[in-house]
Structure formats: C-alpha cells, structure tokens
Design goal:
This protein is α/β, with parallel strands linked by helices. The protein has a single domain, classed as 3-Layer(aba) Sandwich (Rossmann fold), CATH 3.40.50.620. It contains six helices and five strands. It has a five-stranded parallel beta sheet with strand order 3-2-1-4-5, sandwiched between helices. The radius of gyration is 15 Å and the shape is globular.
Length: 163
Amino acid sequence: MKKTALYPGTFDPITNGHFDIIERALNLFDEVIVAVAISTDKKPMFTLAERIEMVQEAVGGLANVKVVGFDNLTVDLARAYDAKVLIRGLRAVSDFEYELQLGYLNNSLDGTIETVYLMPKLQHAFISSSIVRNLLKFNAKTEHLVPKEVQKIIREMKSCTLQ
C-alpha cells in the first residue's frame, strides 16, 4: 500500500528549509503532496498561483512529489488524497508549541491522521519565509535562502520589489 504524506503550508515563498523537509519526507513516504494554502488571513506577498509555481519549479527534479493549492481544512484535503500523515517542520523550540497544538487539533478532527514533525538540516534551521519576505522588501540577498529556481522566478517578477 502506497504511503502518502501531505505537507501543508503557505510557502510564501518556499525556502531551502521547506525543500529540505520535502526531501527528508521522501525518504519516509512513497509520495509527498505539497499543499499550498491560500492563507488570505496571512496576507501573503505572493499570489497563490505564484507560490504554486515556485513550489513546482523547486521540486521539479524530485520524483513522487505533487503540488496542489487549497482553501479548506487540511484534514479534508488529506482525506481527498488518502494521505494519513501530515508533515510539519520544526526549526526551533518556539515552533513546537504551535505545531503541537495544530497536530492535536487535526487529530481531533480526524483520528486516522497523524502528524510527523521533521527538522531541517542545521544550516537551514534559521530560515523562514517571513525572513525571506523581509529581505525581499529591501532588495537584499536571498540566494542562499531559497531554491535557485525560486530565486529566478522572484527576480523576473514585476509585482515583487525586486525589479
């Protein structure tokens, strides 16, 4: 039986830390679905379509990864793809409390879904999408924080501050 994991997030934008988590998840599961949330409440810098494109380009060289957009409950999306595991990344202790609560909430909504927490490599532990967005606002260097395919997309965008 194929083991499918769902990796939900805003990915605004996808970072090297996210990519590292995807690669690690592929070592554990047959298929990883990267689910890009619309997350209008977070007021993302990039549109849903732009974020999906960035993720697709970043994971294009990886087998058994699918990218989808969503605007519903994560557990409902997991059920739709028969994913019994949710992947969540933990960078620091500060992430743990929020992620633990989210894991318990998702399990309360569907007791068949488990959450697996993965840590990125230490070199990526400080990277977050919000750090990247802040750097982008100031046209600062981000090449070491995002996949090269994503950096290329951002540099070519007319809607981003990097023109």
